[in-house]
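hiii, so i know i said id send this last week but things got crazy w the move. better late than never?? heres the sequnce for the chain we talked about at the cafe, plus the structure i predicted for it. fair warning i was half asleep when i ran it
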Amino acid sequence: MRPTDRLAVENDRLRLRIEALERLAAESRQAEEARRQSEEETRRGAEERRRRENAVLGRLAADVNASLNLDSILKRVAEGARELSDGDVAGVALREIDSDAMVFRYWSGVHGVNTGTLRVDGGTGLAARVMSLGRAVRTDRYASDPQISKEYVEVAERETIASLLAVPIVVGSRVEGIIYVGNQLPRAFTELDETSVQRLADRAGLAIQNARLFRGHTRRQEELAVLYDILRAVTGPLAPDKFVEAVHSLLGRVLDARRLLMLRRNADARAFELVWASAPGWSAEDTGLETLVFERNRVIRTADYLATCQAEGVAPSAFAHGLRHATIAPMSLADRAVGVLALWSADRGYSRADEELVTTVAALSALRLTR
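okay and structure toks below
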């Protein structure tokens, strides 16, 4: 090959190498620019997330300071969780009194869920896993997740919930509530979503604790006022039925007294006599738990009336049909029962404080009826 031809070939090779290096440099510059843009977008996204978190947490703090109404706080918590995670639906469940069951207090974005009747507890649901682990749990395929109970899957399918995030609300060392966020489209929740909602849950725990402390203080004041009015009724001229009617109204100021029944024991007939019932339907044959309370001279308080009747081997009263919670207290004088005072509630359980109040009122009623 002539020298001029070899020079031309070398020139072509050099030109190709230079062009390759230029392309590589351009690609490197583009990659670096894309990396910087990605980092900038990530930084801006993180700043926007922090801004949104701070705004939501700030609004929650303002609401807590402005109002200790727990339902209002839970609504703000659910809406905040939905906003922080870009979820389609959100809800908050709180632990039921003296129980491991969680009862939903608020749902946002759903259509067919009856908040008052939806409960989650032990078993194979997300709630059981959150309570046992004490941390957030999420699933990307709720309806087909083998660890989820079919009972809850039916609700999810009705609301077309695909993915679900459950975050614990901890008060002290105990899981007292759960924040749920769901997506109707198959978009998985991320660790960042979990972290954001957990921060909200931590604030919610403090808010719930403060609300309960305030409610407890208010409750004690109201109890004293109710007991004072009942004492006045005890010493007043009211007939027995009017007296119990007044007691029912007074108790309704501090607890859920959907149904109230007062029975006096006829020692000669060894049977109960009706003093007053808040509704028709009482029958002398439907006194299974009342008889046990009278004979044992001890209160029965239950969050599942039907289950307690079954466990005690007695038939449930038709008077309490459809009512889940019950507190039945003996009306005693000098350690001797003379009757029973029974209350039932559909939605709100009775606490130990409620039991103590009902026991005190039962003793005062015994004094009034045997005066």
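btw DSSP finds nine helices and eleven strands in the chain. thought thatd interest u
miss u guys!!
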